[in-house]
Design goal:
By secondary structure, the protein is of the alpha/beta class. It has 13 helices and 10 strands. It is 42% helix and 14% strand. The strands form 2 sheets. The protein has an 8-stranded parallel β-barrel with strand order 1-2-3-6-7-8-9-10, surrounded by 4 helices.
């Protein structure tokens, strides 16, 4: 089945009406969220956007998430406004995932931060004075006032265009920082724990700012399923979260080994209980992000078996990648997701 047939079949099978729908509070029920990354950006076809949003709605989706790069504010603002308007017309919430901002968070796509590249005086430094790199890219120090101002002004811009919430994806800032402003604030001999607490306090302050701008904004933090207990402990100290969770393969480690996937991959089924505990520690609801990109045909049967088991864990917030990148048979993958996601929205 090709993409066009999939869209027609999805809508017909579910009897979808595309009339304007009112939106419930995003934290009032179990939330199904579609990651809709980079669609309608470089190439912009309005009909494709409308069709995509309708299919997501037909699967029971309640929210879509857009990845927002720094350059989108000046190059894609009309595209973003259109996608937000179309989604909200169908009663969907629209969240933003700040991607690679100042190098301090993950997200789509993996590109260097233009803010950081243009401001070497903000860089996080190692003890020897050289830049600290994350995946070969520089990061800006949270202790520099320009970094704080950049985040706050950028958050205000996206909230002002109608975004309903923020997803902080895989924070990268729990690191020691020997930049001049960090040393001035924490001291040259500050233990790593002090730096970890400082980053948690930084994100907490951004969450407070978000709520000041939009009191009903929904804030989520996702970690990597391969994170260590220390990393989860640090992330769970961040305040002001509505949801706390992780991003992992929609099956268990047994399937990962059988499929001979990268040994760094971790299945959601093997960390579900642990993440649930950290969500409680963060005073937040539980969120699972099913990592269904980079899928070969050999992986499809494992996803078909594993996804209903992930759903059965009853996360409060479940995210999936809509027609994700680097997938051998995207229509087959989305057929599997459509079938199982309907059970989540009904449970």
């Amino acid at each position: 089945m090709n993409r066009r047939d999939f869209i027609v079949t999805s809508l017909a099978a579910l009897g979808l009406s595309v009339a304007r729908t009112s939106r419930a509070r995003a934290t009032s029920a179990r939330l199904l969220n579609a990651y809709y990354f980079r669609a309608g950006m470089g190439t912009f076809v309005p009909k494709h956007i409308r069709d995509d949003v309708a299919v997501m709605k037909a699967c029971g989706t309640m929210a879509i998430t857009l990845s927002i790069l720094e350059q989108d504010f000046t190059h894609e603002e009309k595209n973003l406004a259109f996608i937000i308007r179309e989604a909200q017309t169908l009663g969907l919430h629209v969240f933003a995932m700040p991607s690679r901002w100042a190098g301090l968070f993950s997200g789509s796509m993996r590109v260097p931060s233009s803010f950081t590249a243009q401001r070497p005086h903000t860089w996080i430094l190692k003890q020897d004075g050289s830049p600290l790199l994350q995946s070969g890219m520089m990061m800006s120090s949270i202790h520099h006032p320009e970094t704080t101002e950049f985040f706050k002004s950028s958050l205000k811009k996206i909230l002002d265009i109608g975004i309903d919430g923020i997803i902080w994806h895989e924070p990268k800032g729990f690191r020691q920082d020997f930049s001049p402003t960090a040393v001035e604030k924490l001291g040259k001999s500050a233990p790593k724990e002090a730096h970890v607490k400082a980053f948690a306090a930084f994100v907490s302050s951004l969450n407070e700012f978000i709520k000041q701008q939009k009191k009903d904004a929904v804030i989520t933090l996702t970690t990597d399923a391969a994170s260590t207990d220390d990393e989860w402990q640090a992330a769970s100290a961040i305040e002001g979260l509505d949801y706390f969770g992780c991003d992992g393969k929609p099956f268990g480690n047994e399937e990962i080994q059988a499929l001979k996937l990268d040994e760094k991959e971790v299945g959601l089924l093997d960390v579900a209980e642990k993440i649930s505990g950290y969500a409680r520690k963060a005073n937040a609801k539980l969120m699972f992000s099913t990592q269904n990109h980079s899928v070969a045909d050999a992986d499809l049967a494992a996803i078909d078996r594993g996804l209903p088991k992930v759903i059965a864990k009853q996360p409060d917030h479940l995210a999936y990648y809509f027609y994700p990148r680097n997938t051998q048979s995207p229509d087959k993958l989305m057929e599997i997701y459509q079938r199982h996601l309907k059970t989540f929205s009904k449970s």
